[in-house]
Write a structure and sequence with these properties.
Layout (H helix, E strand, L loop, with lengths): L1 H13 L6 E7 L3 H15 L2 E7 L1 H10 L5 E5 H10 L5 E14 L12 H10 L3 E4 L6 H12 L3 H6 L1 E4 L2 H9 L5 E5 H7 L4 E4 L7 E9 L4 H11 L1 H9 L4
Parallel strand pairs: 1-2, 1-3, 5-6, 5-7
Antiparallel strand pairs: 3-9, 4-7, 4-8, 4-9
Helix pairs in contact: 1-2, 1-10
């Protein structure tokens, strides 16, 4: 924390910007650490950070639609694709870290064995209610999960009892409020919601590791650049690691 504050203060002294608004569009997977770092940055600089969270795909779309958007945090693959197509150009990409998909249950309830595809299948069929994020809205884990249940041959059974949530944060809300008996999300989102809810990652046959990155235009404001420096600093990466990134 002291390192982050020291960095932010140094950035504010080096910048002529004061009282500016920095608008960040970010995948929900980074919500908890990003909100904490935004608060540190605001306290040290007098600038304001506005964070908008959504699925990886929806985040990128909203970022491009907003002329006031300064920073984008989404999957490295999506950023790379948009740069190749020219949709995102004249910018800088910085890798933040990777997260893996996993399974969650309400804290205090028995945790199923999901160590093999067959045991995962049993757990999915046994759970009365399942929640996962919406593939149609660009949810990385939700898209992967549909492929997993198709491969296991249980898509129809699972979908009949599934709640499709807007994003991983909402998925975990359903789990913690015991409105879902099993949730599928990024392990970082599970840890950020409640560490005791984490069952574990998918078995290795269905492992999903997703790398997230920061993208911003080369001509962003000094205030936005200062926050970007904080996010990608060693102290910023420690924050991400503590909340499920690797």
């Amino acid at each position: 924390m002291r390192m982050l504050l020291s960095l932010a203060i140094a950035l504010s002294l080096a910048s002529s910007a004061f009282g500016e608004e920095v608008k960040v569009y970010a995948a929900a997977v980074v919500k908890s650490p990003l909100v904490k770092m935004a608060a540190d940055y605001e306290a040290a600089t007098g600038n304001t950070v506005v964070c908008v969270f959504d699925t990886a795909g929806a985040t990128e779309q909203k970022f491009r639609a907003d002329p006031a958007a300064a920073l984008l945090i989404t999957t490295e693959t999506l950023i790379g694709d948009r740069m190749k197509s020219g949709t995102l150009k004249d910018g800088i990409t910085v890798r933040l870290g990777a997260v893996v998909a996993g399974i969650a249950v309400p804290p205090g309830t028995p945790k199923p064995d999901i160590s093999t595809p067959e045991k995962l299948k049993i757990a999915l069929l046994s759970a009365p209610r399942i929640a996962f994020s919406d593939p149609a809205r660009g949810a990385t884990v939700g898209t992967h999960f549909v492929k997993v249940i198709e491969a296991l041959g249980i898509k129809d059974q699972v979908m009949r009892k599934a709640t499709v949530a807007p994003d991983g944060v909402e998925t975990m809300r359903l789990v913690l409020e015991k409105k879902a008996d099993l949730g599928v999300s990024q392990t970082s989102e599970i840890v950020q919601a409640n560490r005791d809810a984490l069952v574990g990652p998918f078995p290795k046959e269905f492992d999903l590791s997703t790398t997230f990155a920061l993208w911003y235009s080369a001509d962003i404001s000094s205030a936005a650049r200062g926050f970007a420096v904080m996010l990608t600093s060693a102290a910023g990466r420690e924050k991400l690691t503590a909340e499920g990134f690797r």
